[in-house]
Model the fold of this input.
Amino acid sequence: AQTVTQSQPEMSVQEAETVTLSCTYDTSENNYYLFWYKQPPSRQMILVIRQEAYKQQNATENRFSVNFQKAAKSFSLKISDSQLGDTAMYFCAFDLYGGATNKLIFGTGTLLAVQP
Amino acid sequence: NAGVTQTPKFQVLKTGQSMTLQCAQDMNHEYMSWYRQDPGMGLRLIHYSVGAGITDQGEVPNGYNVSRSTTEDFPLRLLSAAPSQTSVYFCASSWASGRAVVQFFGPGTRLTVL
Done:
């Protein structure tokens, strides 16, 4: 069975600075997908970034980038130039099928507070 | 497109009552799922469907039933509500073509069981 672990329940960062959220996972599969979702106070789940395990290149989306270390089973999210709107709960998630079948396994989340 | 809609947004039940949480999507997505979100536990998969007429259990299915008679709708039924089912419930739908995946989550239903 796959598991996802987020060991940082809460983090804080100053506006305009960079912050890294950690995620580790466990699986015996070779092909899989990893995700970071953002959940602001509105509760809406928003996909931030998606990484395919067979791709060695780290995914990036504007100010968001990941550090994917397949051998170490680590998948961290870096947020550059933090903005007040980045304040949210962030979930790391795992899926064998790219999210297509909606059978995601989520971590417990990291609550990020961006301070002015 | 309205995306994924969930009704109601909030609900309070008494122990033993039954109810149905509604989920609908107008994007012709094959795949739909229900998750529950509890404090400190992230989202956990309750049931999922890979198409009309096909459903299967997720990680935490006990106490819940689902059916998928149409592509658009995927209702979640609580047969006899228990306080342990107090949670926020999310419905999600998705579509895939090759490696392209489109996925949406609904806005959630906050359920309290007294």
